[in-house]
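We treat protein structure as text, and this decision shapes the records that our systems exchange. The tokens are whole numbers drawn from a learned vocabulary of local backbone shapes. One such record is reproduced below, unchanged from the form in which we store it:
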Amino acid sequence: MKKMNRVVSAVMAASVAALALAGCGSSSSGSTDSSAAATTTAAAEGTSSAAAADSGATFKIGVIGPLTGGAAQYGNGVANAAQIAVDEINAAGGMNGYQVELQSEDDALDNQQSVNCYNTLKDWGMQFLLGSVTSACSIAVSEETHNDNMFQLTPSGSAVDCVKYDNAFRVCFSDPNQGTKSAQYIGEHKLATNVAIIYDSSDVYSSGIMSAFTTEAANQGLNIVSSTAFTADSKTDFSSQVQQAKDAGADLVFLPIYYTEAALILQQANAIGYSPIFFGCDGLDGILSVENFDTSLAEGVMLLTPFAADATDDLTVNFVKSYKDAYGDTPNQFAADAYDGVYAIKAAVEEAGITPDMSVSDICDAMKDAMTKISVHGLTGDPITWTADGEPEKEPKAVVIKDGAYVSAD
């Protein structure tokens, strides 16, 4: 069976215990043995939780991501949503009866700074790492977590090597998965025949998606009529790449890149009267918040993502409301990945019976096994499960920008 949302499960467990205790108080001396057993169990669980709370011990989760700079939409989304999840968990009784602390550090999208953030969080007493947010930073930090045998769950580091060690897992899809699924979606929905690709050859995220997309495009009957690259040193002028896509007759341009560069591409395409379908992956999530960007240019832009903020299921509705109430903004996919990531940590902690007094290495060893046994009812998948190689298993979705908002494309 699918496991219920962890918050709901915790609340229901508390309600059951409360009902059991209330029943004991009103029952007669002729109560059945099963009622007495239920009361004893509830009392024991309450004593255990009280003992955990009284001990003062807490679980400590660290977050690393870009909280400032060009990718701040990603890092702040992760930090904010992780805090919402932690607050919910603490209000519902914590993890195994222990409260949870969260601390976020800003790596400013710099690999070495990400490692520095990791060391800062280690000094704080971190037991679980939710990060890093971006692929290159996550890979850099994974060398440290591997050496320390620290459990690492990146919400959005999608490069293959982000989870090359057995202590590292991810919530998002891998780059090859995103590229393959994008080509399949475009082909199966007959969105285009002639496709152009504009990608960042200096970035592992962009290059990885591009490679997988190109391979799957052939299976989908898509014609790659133009494939042009840029690098970190040449990411302000895309006029040549845009012109080549237009001249090649591409009716769809695939953009496996980040939202800041994508916004410039849309502006430059508009300047020459070129209006194909633009289709990207999770890196485009955030394009509506680019400073001084005319968001009307993003109308009709599509991206493959496991999260749509306009979904009507209770979990999404409640999360979006909590996020807007707390931060005055609509959460993006990175936020949703982080929220699910915190609940995955909770589920694995409870599956393995982990307590805060265990060493970081012992916690990590227990988490490695537990992650392959849990099933999370999350924002980005229902259910989400994990394989031993750190990969999530869930179904992708596509969203389209309509009237300045992300809405489901299906």
